[in-house]
Fold this sequence. Notes:
Keywords: Disulfide bond, Glycoprotein, Glycosidase, Hydrolase, Membrane, Signal. By secondary structure, the chain is an alpha+beta fold.
Amino acid sequence: xxxxxxxxxxxxxxxxxxxxxxxxxxxxxxxxxxxxxxxxxxxxxxxxxxxxxxxxxxxxxxxxxxxxxxxxxxxxxxxxxxxxxxxxxxxxxxxxxxxxxxxxxxxxxxxxxxxxxxxxxxxxxxxxxxxxxxxxxxxxxxxxxxxxxxxxxxxxxxxxxxxxxxxxxxxxxxxxxxxxxxxxxxxxxxxxxxxxxxxxxxxxxxxxxxxxxxxxxxxxxxxxxxxxxxxxxxxxxxxxxxxxxxxxxxxxxxxxxxxxxxxxxxxxxxxxxxxxxxxxxxxxxxxxxxxxxxxxxxxxxxxxxxxxxxxxxxxxxxxxxxxxxxxxxxxxxxxxxxxxxxxxxxxxxxxxxxxxxxxxxxxxxxxxxxxxxxxxxxxxxxxxxxxxxxxxxxxxxxxxxxxxxxxxxxxxxxxxxxxxxxxxxxxxxxxxxxxxxxxxxxxxxxxxxxxxxxxxxxxxxxxxxxxxxxxxxxxxxxxxxxxxxxxxxxxxxxxxxxxxxxxxxxxxxxxxxxxxxxxxxxxxxxxxxxxxxxxxxxxxxxxxxxxxxxxxxxxxxxxxxxxxxxxxxxxxxxxxxxxxxxxxxxxxxxxxxxxxxxxxxxxxxxxxxxxxxxxxxxxxxxxxxxxxxxxxxxxxxxxxxxxxxxxxxxxxxxxxxxxxxxxxxxxxxxxxxxxxxxxxxxxxxxxxxxxxxxxxxxxxxxxxxxxxxxxxxxxxxxxxxxxxxxxxxxxxxxxxxxxxxxxxxxxxxxxxxxxxxxxxxxxxxxxxxxxxxxxxxxxxxxxxxxxxxxxxxxxxxxxxxxxxxxxxxxxxxxxxxxxxxxxxxxxxxxxxxxxxxxxxxxxxxxxxxxxxxxxxxxxxxxxxxxxxxxxxxxxxxxxxxxxxxxxxxxxxxxxxxxxxxxxxxxxxxxxxxxxxxxxxxxxxxxxxxxxxxxxxxxxxxxxxxxxxxxxxxxxxxxxxxxxxxxxxxxxxxxxxxxxxxxxxxxxxxxxxxxxxxxxxxxxxxxxxxxxxxxxxxxxxxxxxxxxxxxxxxxxxxxxxxxxxxxxxxxxxxxxxxx
Length: 1058
């Protein structure tokens, strides 16, 4: 019987879903059913190669020996990915494809905003080696919004990820027609999520798969089309690009200190979000809100989740575009942070600056080389033997105070590192106060857990504990009062630990070291610490916590979950086991740090964190960790950053030039050309010296590419505002803007930087050109008069060239208006004090549907004879806590060219005005008191011959508000003409340039520019020669020059009729 939720959003229909009770389409199934001695081999249908693989015997046994034990034999490749990352999982495993299902008992009952029901185990289940099944489960189907549906399967008392972690409002039901339909079968229970009114294959469908729910093993699956592309499930450094592999080898999610240079393994973060893009370009997302260790196996026809605890808490994000999926995701986990303006500049750090004197030398090196630098980031050498909140002997307080003061005078910033490990050292104030206030995570004996990191024997703060949060803030304040930092870098917070053990002790003589060798005595298992008296509050976890029944594919070799981290048996102040919250440690630490910085500075925080979970991007920036100075690592950094954006972590970057090993000048030059267009840009290294001023070629290209980045910061800051408002990544894969273009699906070495810019770097050693893909549209170089790339008839591959010291290939997509800072700038303060250049990129034909944009469609529906370009610029004080939404926080740029048939010319117009910030209210006034820059120049790209005498520039100002916050627009001051210093038109490149306007932007004033393109009917765009016809020698018409009496005087070489 069909039921409908009381509030009327989702349609919940009882539909019998067909399909066999056991899985179909299994891949990687090996072995032949032949008779051996002993136990008969299992039938092939009982063996699912994608898991779960419970070891049956020993490594190296033969197929015959495996089958003699009644087990499945299916060796996997010993490597994964394109770089051959080692893989070691059992080739011989227990039969694993038995049926497991539940029935929906008594049907659904309506709830306030969905349905609730009870699931009861059907039969005896399967895989008893993974533990007993939980017989009765609760099922909740919740309508979150017309585009978000939540389905949760769980049981009382099980761990769930707290909503309080997410910097997002509590999700409340919102009405409107639903975009989804929830269909289910009661016995055995299965369900499918479909798009409303669509006959397309469901976006999620469990029919024909099994549901398994044990204490420490949960499994569910969905069938998927072979033609779909899958993304997400980070964090890992993929050797095969942004699109996920479909070979059935499990992808593990378990935060782990593993070098980013080790590809195709789980590393620092866990992002249980899967995005699927169908062949028609529609997209949807599946979020599993679960922090326990898990594997996800992907084949050509199926996705299966294998989870070690918690609940099956699913959010279905219906899209239908990639931008929509990120909007919906970040409604749940929090919008990406709005970074402080200064943090968009270049940062520099190094593991190994041994004294404060080095700090001064580095600043001098950048200044002498004229390379922009905004922030000096201090690695742990500034501490006293790696002890947090201290200064070492070679970093005396007076020198550090002078250094921070000098940074302030130079409009630069300081960000020190903090590691979470607290040295066990009586007399060290932070340790002593931590012990006194009982802030540390406990081992199974009830004592602070003992491990080892940089300073030696260490404890780790329990950031789940409110007492710890306050204590942590006080430690930060103790440094801040002497050395007011501008942000904090949080490292090693997976947690990283030299040792593996449930209980460890210091035998004595454990000194600071950085070789990751454990010097402690450690024991594993329930008997660990047996010689130590248990504290009164100690509770021994169940035996299965020490050795979980299911081993995820951690490190591609089923590493123990406690390997070189906090043991899963450790406990927090409220008894929560690390087993459940390991992946959340960094989130709690970031939140505690953000609270401290906001309290001390009353400004927007900057935090850089290595470890992440869903929602981390709402609080902090992230970098990809310990890359090698290798060409492969440089290439792979791109897809890692793009994948982070899919998890709502928009402010992301990699260590420019590589962290470990040593780059040469060619690699570093190419890497800085790429890193200049990471959302987060930092040069960081350990081995040798590879600051950007060390090599002549690197310094030369740094001045160019970072100079262009700094010019683009007004645009980039605006793109971060869009990310913060609507959830879209700043650096995004091409398929976001062009989802229906299947060629873009696995392009992992180009990316869109916001709505307008396409980055296509050189990524191979010893090469100077590359083949780059240009999706449908017209693409202009922002640097010079290079001919445009015309792909208006469809996407095309084009050869691009760039020498080692050249600018990175960068193109502006027609249909956009991009604000740039004018001139060369050494800091972001210089950028804020500079004037603006507006770059207007005119499309060739607006009949072609434009690219998808985070900021929304540009103009009305495409129509012949009307060419639209638009953009905007967000502006505020740069680091205030409350993101401005007033009228004077956002200025819009709207350009339109309209064909005049009788005159056979385009009338062009650009309007710059305050129309209200996205996310603001329609009646918002000019209340932010924002000091806007001056618009000095305007460049219009892609216009036909322009009669420069037709150019007019006027400024209008609505009457002064009757009261604060109100703008009386009904009586406007008459437009005032503005005379630019110069107007030129370059016919070779189709570029109209208006110089020297000196127009001061001020709310609610409006700037208007008009021109006439024509009256030449014989103009066309030629890929090789630019806009034709050519004009006088030099390609320019002086201000006021009249048009020739007829078109033939301009020597047209090709004709077309608009």
